[in-house]
Amino acid sequence: MQLRYNFRLYPSPGQRQALARAFGCPRTVFNDGLCIRRDARIRGLPYISDGELSKQVITRAKATPQRAWLGEVSAVVLQQALADLNTAYRNFFASLSGKRKGRTIAPPRFRSRKDSRQAIRFTRNARFAVTTGGKLRLPKIGEVEVRWSRSLPSDPSSVTVVKDSAGRYFASFVVEATGEALPQTDSEIGIDLGLTHFAITSDGRKVASPRFLRRAAKKLRRAHKALSRTQKGSANRAKAKLRVARAYAKVTDTRRDFAHKLSTTLIRDNQAVYVEDLAVSGMARTRLAKSVHDAGWSQFVAMLEYKAVRYGRHFGKINRWFPSSKLCSACGTIATSMPLNVRSWTCPCGAGHDRDVNAAINILAAGQAERLNDCGARVGPGAIPAPRDEAGTRQEPHTRQTGISVS
Fold it and tell me: Which positions are catalytic?
């Protein structure tokens, strides 16, 4: 099982300039490769192979005066940028042909130097290393100071250096780790996610919604007002923009920390966890969009998913069309309607229900029913792909690696 370990970097001023060059060169290679393939398609020429494209935008380009500065950075970083472009094209073609499930993927787009997030990836071929003094040695950049919060379980296969919108630098290591099976427990739980309460469990517990973005709204509003008063292109505007980014980064970090702690507690205390497969993208297009995004359900469910695999637990999703709220958990009667303003109701059988607790109980029952096969034997959890922004299993070592730390 491959996991990501994320650590804060503190480069020196000279190393920051070297990293800026390292961010810019792969971006140029990516854009050059994309431009060449687009021109070939417009002219009706055959699709340029990966090897030929590498020769044109890296090998031959370094010999020209216009691109001679590509030699100032590690060649592995340039090759990884082309690998990202090739992967983007393969995903696009697979989506067009129907081989890739889900929404249709758009073709690759040009990368901008104004993007709030910049990243480069070093593989083992780049010969990066962690020194005995605890620093990260990167080719043509130097030894960068790292704030180690824990030790790596094994030698990393790659490291991604990231600069976020708040101007912070991170090193994201991909390491091979063995599963850490927790002791068996008889407890199983169903979880109903909501806005008034973030999570309601089948045993009656309710976790209050933290509403991090709402709580930070006043500070964010002041930061945005200060930004709007500055002149475009000025130094003061750059400072104000950084203050806005740092305020949003604090909200994001706090939400992620909350999701990590809650998901770890639920996985540790229960042998099986069941949640409803919510259509978050559809709900985010309603009048509740801000609250839905603030809740961060998708991030939380993704954490439950990969942590269940890591710690030997079972994780299940219930069909989003399952009438968990309208179904009586006592007799099985389905109510004709259940508006959102109805928070408690009484079934004709006489059972009184809290809407959210009743839904969590029904999610648990439905998950347990799906987990049992016709013979009554337990079905173990299958392989779960790693979420885009979290640690987890990864199938292909050559695919783009992005993520954050695990807890």
Answer: 192, 276, 356
